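Minutes, project check-in
Item: structure for the 64-residue chain
Input as provided by the requester:
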Amino acid sequence: MTARYLFAIRQLADASAGGVVDFKTMRAFLQDVVAVRRGDHHAARLQLAAELAEANRQKIRVES
């Protein structure tokens, strides 16, 4: 998805005067990218927590 945003920014830059994207447009794009990355990081944390919980369950079973 980030690659799609980069491609869209490049298209905007090519279409705009002087090949420069204005600050407000760039900020809006980057806010979307940050939101996506936060979601990715949150999902990774949840996956790690689930794996840790499963490892703890297995450890408790072995000890019992």
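Outcome recorded: The chain has a mean pLDDT of 88.
No further action items on this chain.
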